Amino acid sequence: MIQHVYERYGQRGAAMTANVITYRGRSAIREVGKVLGFAEETIGKLSALSPMWGWQEPDETIEKQFHEAGMDLQHPRVRKFFELVSGLQDLPRHLGQHSGGMVICAGQLDSVAPLENASMPGRVIVQWDKTVPT
Question: What is residue 109's DSSP assignment?
């Protein structure tokens, strides 16, 4: 279906939207843990304590998670781990191409938004913020 849309509207008249995928608890913990050389067992324990979609309740915090995993936040290496994990939250991780849909334009889409080639040949991505009214 995607290729049909490109064939009909052309590569300058249609594009897949690129969603920004951000770091959440589990992905941040795994990335920082690897960089700082923490044991896979420790990374797994911390990751398992992290809710998939973030902390929903005020008493659910990353500090509580580290404490429950038996990590001393006063230790310099653990403190740095905590700071880096906290700092990564909600920062961009990568672009997702398939979850955002497509934008179709009667004219040339690149006249209103920047386009870039996708990793798959014959596909184009548009940088489009769906949260802001246009």
Answer: G
Domain span at 13:
2-18+97-126
The pTM for the full model equals 0.63
**Pair 13, 48 in one domain:** no
Query: Are the C-beta atoms of 92 and 21 separated by less than 8 Å?
Result: yes
Backbone angles phi, psi at 9, to 5 degrees: -105, -10
Collapsing DSSP to helix, strand or coil, 53 comes out as: coil
Q: Are residues 10 and 47 in the same domain?
A: no
The DSSP code sequence of 87-108 is HHTTSEEEEESSSS-EEE-SS-
DSSP 8-class letter at 111 = G
Number of domains in the chain: 2
Residue range 18-34, pLDDT digits in tens: 777 888 888 898 999 99
